[in-house]
Design a protein that fits this description.
- There is one protein chain.
- The protein has eleven helices and two strands.
- It is mostly helical and 253 residues long.
- Strands 1-2 form a two-stranded antiparallel ribbon.
- It is flat and about 60 Å long.
- This is Cobalt/nickel transport system permease protein.
């Protein structure tokens, strides 16, 4: 975790949002998602207000709308599920453009789309303004169990290692004229997957031995301790606090 490690979701910048300590942003996003989920689905205006709040954060972070919208495509499976709800849900029915739809299904679809999209957008903004290494440090600062933090750190790093190994194996197959075109080639792909598993396991063993030889005792050292001032906490928590006001109004109105 000591070395730098960037990812495709991260957008390098020097905005006030980028400068916030990672644990404050993690806490703010978690609180914002909880508030959004707690909002009654009938308060449609509240979700529009949440979207405006996230747009303000994106503007402060200098994250372009195209960048954000492109990465929201990850929720397409949830959109497909939401589209099916009005057709399969039971209860009172209503005709819309000649289709018989469930009222409860329509509300359920709206609930999934609105809350899911806002949650994903908040997560994308967090990833766009915080490097993976900083996120892991933030989890440590929030007192997440150290073992879980270490597992997440190794997953991130070995995910890239395995991906790169898969790329090299694919290039080696293609350089020998291999091209998977049907079920006949599944045997070759299965053997490649087995070889990838063995290589990954052996690499993990070597890395573990190297760590033990350097004094690893089950606890990753904290290289830099990032503390947050009261002003930084106030700045980070402005989003969930504003969302909480909207949520309370949604229940009251």
């Amino acid at each position: 975790m000591g070395a730098g490690h960037s990812h495709r979701l991260y957008r390098h910048g020097h905005s006030p949002v980028h400068a916030l300590p990672p644990h404050t942003k993690l806490a703010a996003v978690l609180a914002f998602v909880i508030v959004v989920v707690s909002t009654p689905r009938e308060a449609m205006w509240a979700f529009a207000a949440y979207a405006v709040l996230l747009a303000a954060v994106a503007y402060a972070a200098r994250v372009p709308a195209a960048f954000l919208l492109k990465r929201l495509l990850i929720e397409v499976p949830f959109v497909a599920f939401a589209v099916l709800l009005p057709f399969v849900a039971e209860g009172e029915r209503v005709d819309v453009l000649g289709l018989s739809l469930s009222v409860n299904g329509l509300w359920g679809a709206w609930n999934v789309l609105a809350k899911g999209t806002l949650g994903v957008a908040a997560s994308v903004l967090l990833a766009a303004t915080t490097e993976l290494r900083e996120l892991l440090h933030g989890l440590q600062r929030l007192r997440l169990p150290p073992l879980l933090v270490q597992i997440a750190s190794f997953m991130v790093r070995y995910g890239d290692v395995i991906t790169d190994e898969m790329r090299r194996m694919r290039i080696a197959r293609e350089s020998r004229g291999f091209e998977a075109r049907g079920i006949r080639h599944w045997g070759v792909l299965a053997k490649s997957a087995g070889a990838l598993f063995i290589r990954s396991y052996e690499r993990g063993e070597r890395v573990h031995l190297a760590m033990v030889s350097r004094g690893y005792t089950g606890v990753m050292p904290v290289i830099d301790e990032v503390a947050a001032s009261r002003a930084q906490w106030s700045y980070a928590l402005a989003l969930p606090c504003a969302a909480l006001v909207v949520c309370l109004l949604g229940w009251a109105l």
